[in-house]
Amino acid sequence: MTSALHLISGNDEARIKLKAKELVEILSEGSTDPFALEVISRQESESPDEMLKRTILSYMSPPFFGKKTIWLDDFPAFKQENGTSKSTTAVEIRNLVEQISQFPADNINFVISGNDCDKRKALYKACSKNGEVHLFNKPEKKNRNWQVEMSQIVREQANEMHLSIQPQALDYLVTCLGNDTQRVQPTLETLWCYANGQNPINLQQVQNVISGNEAADAWIYSNALSKRSLETALNSLNILMSREKDPESLVSRLLMQASSLFHNFVQAKLVMQTFKLKNSSELEAALKSLDSDSLKDYKSKYPIVSFHPYRLKLIVEDSRRYSNKETLDAMDLINTSMQKLFKSGSSKRLILESLTHRIISKTST
């Protein structure tokens, strides 16, 4: 079999990363086996030419078993490509072009991703001739049709999440987002959670999420816990606490929400372990393969199995950000914080901020 070659580039970093991740997952069939999937990302203090040397060496090495996928991830120096330059990076780019042009590898999928690969130069042309090129550029506000382009981007990503948005709501959403494509996916995820998976998303729901109210900001806090984003979590807490007249009630609700989140993570880990799965993308098919009685039994034991497939996939993916021990420790910390809330005269805000630090920190105990 010949290689499957993909170049993902342009100036839209957010969508380049999304597409590259999606392609690699498809081509590698969700494998995490280092013999089947080699991700070449830039290491600390590593130069671009050293990245390319590692890539070329991997490309020239046949797979041990069956097929392998190589991903040159977020290559930072496409602009250094030059047909005559003697710089080490330019020379290695020419070596890479030679490999993919003259020596197509058997049983190797090759994905190259990064910003600003020049259409006029050899690497782009070689990838276009021997494989497939995926270009993603951000809508330019100086273009009078930028809102149309941005609407299409939002709509496509929403469709992938099985999410529909009413036209008026979409117009409002695009106006708020501008051409910041990096905000599209997290905003859609927040909308999905806020609407509890119900379609279509209406204008009021979008306005609530974008302008911010307690429910929307509470979802943002919970999502930040899921993603282990300390800055986002603390920012959302600051917004919530600044307008809350009853801090104790708010903190109680947020603690209950956090408790539910980590209980879901426990279920996700148990379900994946029961099915002996390594990737969230495999779970939907595994559940569909069950007979009706077995599926009913799973839903009884693990309520998250009843969730929409996309929501379930997100929970599984986020649960992997925490080890088993960290997940159990987080649940203990939340229970302790609940006890402090009602027994202690400590600041309610301090209790929640301290909890947030300890859960998200990699060194939480």
Q: How do the strands and helices of this protein lay out in sequence?
A:
Layout: E1 4-10, H1 13-27, E2 37-40, H2 48-60, E3 68-72, H3 88-102, E4 108-113, H4 122-130, E5 132-136, H5 146-160, H6 167-177, H7 184-194, H8 203-211, H9 214-227, H10 230-243, H11 247-275, H12 283-288, H13 292-301, H14 309-319, H15 324-343, H16 348-360
Parallel strand pairs: 1-4, 1-5, 2-3, 3-4
Structural notes for this entry:
The chain has 365 residues and is α/β, with parallel strands linked by helices. Helix content is 59%, strand content 7%. It has a 5-stranded parallel β-sheet with strand order 2-3-4-1-5, sandwiched between helices. It is globular and about 70 Å long. The protein starts with a strand and ends in a 5-residue tail after the last helix.
Low-confidence stretches: none
What form results from the Cα inertia axes? globular
For the sheet with most strands, the description reads: 5 strands, parallel
Q: Which H/E pattern describes the elements?
A: EHEHEHEHEHHHHHHHHHHHH
Would you tell me the structural class of the helices and strands? Answer: alpha/beta
- Output the number of helix runs: 16
Cα-to-Cα separation, first versus last residue: 50 Å
Helix percentage range: 55-70%
Q: Could you state the oligomeric state of the chains shown?
A: single chain
Query: What's the overall average pLDDT, rounded?
Result: 89
- Strand % is 5-15%
